[in-house]
Amino acid sequence: MSDASNAKTFRWWNIALLGFTTVWGLNNVINNFANQGLAVVTSWILIMILYFVPYTLMVGQLGSAFQEEGGGVSSWVKMLSNNKLAYFAAWTYWVVHVPYLAQKPQIIMVSLSWLFKGNGSFIKTASPLVVQGASLIIFLAFVWLASKGTATLNNLGSIAGIAMFTMSMLFIILGVSAPFITHVQIATPNMTDIHTYIPKFDFQYFTTISMLVFAVGGSEKISPYVNKTKNASKEFPLGMIILAVMVAVSAILGSFAIGMIVNSNHIPADLMANGAYQAFQFLGNSFHVGNLFVWAFAITNTIASAAALAISIDAPLRMLLGDADKKFIPKSLLKKNKRGVNINGYKMTAILVSILIVVPALGINGMNDLYNWLLNLNSIVMPMRYLWVFFAYMMLAKQMDKFKSDYMFVKNKYVGFGFGLWTFFLTAFACILGMLPKMNMAQDPSSWWFQLALNIITPLALLALGLILPAIAKRTNGDMDEA
């Protein structure tokens, strides 16, 4: 059985397809188009070459070097540095899911609104306090559900993932072909002019990079498959490069498709929340199938979000409490109920996410601003876990003689360290500049400052809590300190 499981059966196309379904989704196209318009086409090309390709190839070498460690980022850090840094890596990986968990109930409500009402009025008319109250109820219901086991939702999530991939491909095919088949008018003028696609590299532009970084991150999930790849030194990088091409083509064609449906020079304020549904509604009307595509996308998005919500309450917490050195974690957090669930860990998750659901509604005016802010917060916080991937790669480059791997991204330790440093710097730069709110300050100064304060305080508070737990553990764990 072990021989079968270790067989090198993966080929480059398996790696590319697996990576694509892991990393990519239609909302990545919508959200970045909302930030940059059609100029995002150039941004996609730059982010692929300067960030995504080296990122994925570094992950390949790390996964190959530590195949017996199961591919976890915290285990890489542990092998390359020490237990304390490994704990912080595990903590970061868990804590960045807090804003992610806070937004999923909003996404579910928007999906259900489109499914039953057939329009996007919910995001424009709903009161932030009412929505966040409902979000809190949905979230706490899923905490309870996750504590009972998530096997059914996990299976539904896999089905929804395939459906979401299909909907993304359908969107690109229909969006690009619609003007030629149905002769609808193209929304963005001058789409044949090269200047339409050139970004204005000003300060405002650099505040939107975090959303691009957020969109292409997460390929470390593919690392366990490096050593299951036939002829890994050749086929794994080929698979990763094909993955980058697939993502780039999807991003560029998807952006073209949205540009044909939405005027790039007059982007609606609710595009991040409603854009995918509006686009599918437009395509449904163009191809004379009514709201069929809208219903399909709404059902897919609801199931996928529900599954992701339940699984993301449990899986990152399990990784934190399972991988990290126990002397850094208070003994009370390790307590399990009869179903093997870390019940106090669930309570900690529930408290942090509930705070992040309730507090913003007190100072952000309008449901649409609240939705966009929380999405932007995710783009600031989630890439913080990628920093540990690049830190691990820099440490691996320094110790290249000690840790051998079947697949090598670069063989020169100084060049390797340079790649790690570059991607680390770009990620940190994107996260810091991403903290600036994406709304017009003059229109609502108090809301702008409130969002800025939350964007700075939230990641700092989440990381600082990771410093407090080892101090509590030192005082409360007693004999565990000797372990």
Automatic annotation (TrEMBL):
Stretches that traverse the bilayer: 12-30, 36-57, 85-102, 122-146, 158-181, 201-218, 238-262, 292-311, 345-364, 370-393, 414-436, 448-473
Gene Ontology CC, one term: plasma membrane
Record has Transmembrane helix as a keyword: yes
Subcellular locations according to the entry: Cell membrane
Main subcellular location: membrane
One Pfam family, short name: AA_permease_2
Membrane topology summary: Multi-pass membrane protein
Keyword Transmembrane helix: yes
MF terms in GO: transmembrane transporter activity
Keywords: Cell membrane, Membrane, Transmembrane, Transmembrane helix, Transport
InterPro entries: AA/rel_permease1, APC_superfamily
Top-rank taxon: Bacteria
PANTHER family: AMINO ACID TRANSPORTER-RELATED, GLUTAMATE_GAMMA-AMINOBUTYRATE ANTIPORTER-RELATED
Name of the protein: Amino acid transporter
Organism: Companilactobacillus mindensis DSM 14500
